[in-house]
Design goal:
Blueprint: H1 5-23, H2 26-47, H3 50-74, H4 76-96
Length: 99
Amino acid sequence: MRVPTAVITAGSLIGGWQIARRTGIRPLGGVVLAAGGVAAGREWARRTSPAVTGALAATYVGAFGLSHPLAKKIGSWPAVLVVSAVTAAASYLVADRRS
């Protein structure tokens, strides 16, 4: 059974942030983020077109980038949860629901 990419993206965004926060080693959080991106990207490539895979990858990376300024406005936890939910929803609607 394959893990839905919605779970991978949300889990790696939240998990990467928590690992970086709790250990104080930001690159370690980046490793989790990158691993999640690679795992999700492989599934997107298998399930969708290259254009859709690129759009979903841009959404994932953009969510990470957006979480930083958003955290200054609404707080860290809410920001990470919002971008994770949006990324997971996009992954589900575009890639996971079809499988």
